[in-house]
Structure formats: structure tokens, C-alpha cells
Design brief:
- There is one protein chain.
- This protein is α+β, with helices and mostly antiparallel strands.
- It is built from 3 helices and 4 strands.
- It has a 4-stranded antiparallel sheet, covered by helices on one side.
- A hairpin with a 7-residue loop joins strand 3 and strand 4.
Length: 135
């Protein structure tokens, strides 16, 4: 895939393309709905080391007629990384998966305390300068 400068909007290695979903499942969905094939937006992230190869692809099911803001789509696509990082910290550092009880109130208390601990850590990191030495 080539990356000509004139094609689509770009923000920091991202490109937005208007595409039409194809294939037999898409035709079946379109015929059941009584509409034409669905227009989609394809968000492409370039690989800096291999410019001809896309690093990541996202297919957005937004209406094809309205052009979405590229920066907003990039932010939404990258939100998944923040969610996965937060969940990994909940699981590895704070022990959300260590609950072995059998009651709803016990599980609810455990999850509430672990979530409060994550909030405390996030607030502490936000207030502590990165260059400060640990005490």
C-alpha cells in the first residue's frame, strides 16, 4: 500500500479512508435491511519503520456521509490501550482476580476496594512529578 501525500487527512502517521464493505455477509445484511452496501471509514496507522505497511487498522461504522474528525477517531481507537493497561494493573498489581468468595456482597466490596486503590494510584501519579526521586 502506498502513502501518497494527497490522499486523505493525516495526523501523526494516521490516515482516514472512505471504504465500502464488501463480501457475501455484507450483501446479505444490506439486502435484509433493504439498503445499499454499507459505507465505512477505515482508520490506518502507519508503521514508521516500514512506511508501505500499515501497523494497525480500525473499521469505523459511522455514517458514510458525515466525515468524522480524524483526531477524535484516533483518540477513540487508542482508548483501548488505556483500558487494557488499567485492567492489567488492576489484575497484576492490585489483585482484582484474587477474590475467592461466593457472595455478591463480598465480590462487590472487593471490586470496590480495588477500584478505589486504582483511583488513589492514578491521583498520586498525576500529582507526583516524574522527575522527583522516590522518598
Amino acid at each position: 500500500m502506498s502513502w501518497p501525500a494527497a490522499e486523505g487527512d493525516r495526523v501523526a502517521g494516521f490516515s482516514l479512508r472512505h471504504v465500502r464493505e464488501a463480501g457475501i455477509p455484507a450483501r446479505r445484511r444490506a439486502s435484509k435491511a433493504g439498503t445499499a452496501l454499507l459505507d465505512r471509514w477505515l482508520l490506518v496507522q502507519r508503521d514508521n519503520e516500514k512506511p508501505a505497511t500499515p501497523a494497525h487498522l480500525w473499521l469505523a461504522s459511522l455514517p458514510g456521509t458525515a466525515r468524522p474528525a480524524l483526531q477524535r477517531l484516533v483518540r477513540l481507537a487508542k482508548t483501548r490501550w488505556a483500558v487494557e493497561t488499567g485492567y492489567r494493573e488492576l489484575k497484576d498489581t492490585l489483585g482484582i482476580d484474587h477474590f475467592e468468595g461466593r457472595t455478591w456482597p463480598g465480590w462487590h466490596r472487593h471490586v470496590t476496594l480495588v477500584t478505589a486503590a486504582l483511583l488513589f494510584l492514578a491521583e498520586h501519579r498525576a500529582r507526583t512529578p516524574k522527575h522527583a526521586a522516590p522518598a
